[in-house]
């Protein structure tokens, strides 16, 4: 790939309850503020059913400033089992393979479960930021975010 970036397309990782499996690799597109991105499905090992999704965005720009390097969603019927926390942890080896020691995770100020996931991960709350009207973050619906910095362990 251009600029020396190489996807680790076969990356899959599991713990005792869930697995993260690559389901899409998105190439960078500066005109759309996209950085290289891994999209994963999160599966339960017990039922082999998809319980959510998680992504790792390998880069930094205005969109990442508000949206973070890691984004996750656990489907409502599977929440309360710390799957977001576990899925984030399962990405650590991949993140380290890209030479990263720290990543940004953001969440909406009223999203207490996501804030709790960041706390469980040991992420440090950096700030609450508000997008400037008309900025890329504003147009993407990311008006206000809480930014956390996660140092990988």
Can you give a write-up of this model?
With 153 residues, the protein is of the alpha+beta class. The chain has helices spanning 62-67, 83-97, 112-121, 136-139, and strands at 12-14, 18-26, 37-44, 50-57, 70-74, 102-107, 124-130, 144-151. It has a 5-stranded antiparallel β-sheet with strand order 1-2-3-4-5, covered by helices on one side. Strands 6-8-7 form a 3-stranded antiparallel β-sheet. β3 (37-44) and β4 form a beta hairpin. α2 crosses α3 (112-121). The longest helix is centred in the middle third of the chain and has 15 residues, at 83-97. The chain is globular.
The low-pLDDT segments are none
Q: What pattern of helices and strands is seen along the backbone?
A: EEEEHEHEHEHE
The rough form would be described as globular
Main sheet specs: 5 strands, antiparallel
User: SS-based structural class?
Assistant: alpha+beta
Cα-atom radius of gyration = 15 Å
Give the beta-strand count.
8
Cross-sheet strand order for the largest sheet? 1-2-3-4-5
Mean pLDDT: 90
- Provide the β-strand percentage band: 35-45%
Distance between termini? 29 Å
User: Percentage of helical residues?
Assistant: 10-25%
Count of discrete alpha- or pi-helical segments spanning 4 or more residues: 4
């Amino acid at each position: 790939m251009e600029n020396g970036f190489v996807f680790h397309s076969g990356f899959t990782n599991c713990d005792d309850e869930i697995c993260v499996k690559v389901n899409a690799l998105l190439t960078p597109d500066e005109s759309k503020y996209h950085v290289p991105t891994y999209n994963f499905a999160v599966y339960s090992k017990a039922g082999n059913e998809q319980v959510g999704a998680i992504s790792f965005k390998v880069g930094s720009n205005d969109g990442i400033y508000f949206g973070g390097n890691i984004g996750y969603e656990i489907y409502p019927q599977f929440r309360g089992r710390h799957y977001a926390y576990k899925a984030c942890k399962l990405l650590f080896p991949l993140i380290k393979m890209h030479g990263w020691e720290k990543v940004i995770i953001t969440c909406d100020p009223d999203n207490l479960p996501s804030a709790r996931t960041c706390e469980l991960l040991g992420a440090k709350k950096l700030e609450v930021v508000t997008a400037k009207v008309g900025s890329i973050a504003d147009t993407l619906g990311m008006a206000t975010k809480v930014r956390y910095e996660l140092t990988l362990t």
